[in-house]
Every structure is written in C-alpha cells, then in structure tokens.
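Target protein
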Amino acid sequence: MPNYPRIQLKYFDARGRAQFLRYFLLCRDIPFEDDRVLLAAGFEAWQTIRQDRTITGPFQKLPVLRWGDRMIAETTVIASFLHRASGDAGLLSESENLRHEMLVSSVYIDLMVWIGILLWSEVRFPGADLGTTSKQVLERIHSHLAVLDRTLIDWQWLKRAAARPVMVGDCILWDQINVAHHVFGGKLGLDATPTLARFYRDCPGREAFERLLHAKPCPVTARPGEAACVARIHELLASG
C-alpha cells in the first residue's frame, strides 16, 4: 500500500456531493477520516464552523479534503485530485483520462445537481409545484441516462473497467444511479439503458458501497424533511 499522508474528508452527515468520494477511498483501502458535520434543525453544527476558513476552505462550504498539509475544495476538483493522487491517472492513456474527467463532470452536473434541485425545490422556491418539478426532472434524468448509456458503449467503459481498479468515475456514476432509484422509485427504471443497468448491477465496488450505506445510513441531502419529500415524490409520480 502506498504511504499516504493523513487524509480527512469533511462533509455533512449526508450523501450529497461527498458520498462517491467516500466510496472511492473506502473501496480502494485508502485510510481516511470520514468527518461528518451533524445535521439538525437550524444547522447549528455547520453555523459554528462555517466562517472558519481553516476548516471550510476558501469558499466556506463543503466538502473539503485534507491531504497531509494540503486543503482541496470543490467537489469535482477533489475528484480530479484523488484520481491523480491515487495513481489512477497513470493507469490510463491521455484520452482515457479525458473521458474519465468528462464522465465525472457529466454525472455531477446532469444527475447530482438536478436531483438536489428537486429535493430542495419547495424550500428554495416557495410555492413550487413538486409534482410538476418531479416529472420534469425525471424526464431530464431519463434523457441523460440514455445519453450516458450510449457513451459507455462507445467508450467500451465496462470492458475497460473490468481490467482496472474501481475509479472515481465509477463511484459517482454508481452513486447517482442509486440516488435516482431512491428518489424516483420504480419510475426510474433502467430497462431502456441496459449498459447502465449492467454497470449498476455488476460494478466491482458495489459491495463496498452498499456496506457503507448500511453502516452509516444518511439522507441524500441536508434538506429538512427529506424523507417525507421523497415519499411525496413517489406518490405524485405514481398518480400522474
């Protein structure tokens, strides 16, 4: 095992923007401190530390990765840093590294961000129609999953992934399919995207991912009342 420095990943006690980073560090046996800020009404634990830039970084938000004496902020930058620091970039060609980075960006922007917007919609936009928003976001998710399915085929992602360790791109893709299943229930479906379905089912890191989900269950986001919101999304989609 490489001689890693002290590593700390600080984020809320939620999946959000950091769960796939936890998955990567866990399934690759990279020792790290999974430092979670507790969630409670009023976000007292977060408000206590938010202004301390030595903790929350240059933009005063999470996640933040400490790698020895280095502090790295911003989710996709952390992902890129881990890809390089783990040695994974050296296992891929230049074009493969570009594809890996493009996949991370695409999943982050077109899946993670939109699911987060949906879950927070009623809080951030009072008066928002959750039923209409849920249908629109689900349509967008379905459209992007179809694009991802074709891209994984074109890139021979599954074949190449079988010949290398689980990488950051695998972790974020699996996590966001899992989150989408949780949020949209049976309405998500992967029948129309068989390559994605196979990836989700057979991803080599799946056992480690599910072990963490079982050991440390937590909401997708820090949204108050998220469980009730997800239940309503299921009901609204089922009735529509």
Observations:
- The chain has eleven helices and four strands.
